[in-house]
Design brief:
The chain has about 210 residues and is mainly α. The chain has nine helices and no strands.
Amino acid sequence: MCSARCTFRESKRLAHRGEIIKTALELFSQKGFHNVSMQEIAQKAEFAVGTLYNFFKDKESLYQALVSEQAEKFHIELNRALDSDEDELVKIKSYIKAKEKVFSENAALIRLYFTETQGAKVNVKAGLDCEMKGNYEHFLHKLAAVFENAIAKNKIKGLLDPYYMAVALDSLTNAFLFLWLENPEQHPFSKNIEAVFNLFLERIKVS
């Protein structure tokens, strides 16, 4: 019985935490990080301000949790595309599609992150930066391994070190995705996936 009560209590606590993060993202996206207070987040989420401080010691900690949790979801989604049993070229295309998916589903957060971190407007703690950079580096090496396998199977030319090929593809997709963030109607990334894939592979694919 106690176990059931504890499970319910924990589920309720997680739900409250999720609602706080969701509300914070909404307000940060609308007004900017520095123009939103913990009191405003509490009011919008319909919690007492003390409830917010039970989860997060300050607004910076709330922002850090918001970005960190979403970054982990991105990492999982992108790695899932590369961990499949598909052909290497299919994996690369799946990665591009997965990246479009996480960007489109989290556009508000991504816009917020890049707006607030430009010019060091938000002092995100070093631990978070290191974690995100570590995940990103791990992902690049996994993407590089896909290229390495494709070269070994003579599916693509080894014009560059596989790691640099991974960096190049990631940079190319980022360029298209940032255009989409600025103007989704003018630069619909989902319609350009095939073009991105073909543009990158045109010079490296074995005829």
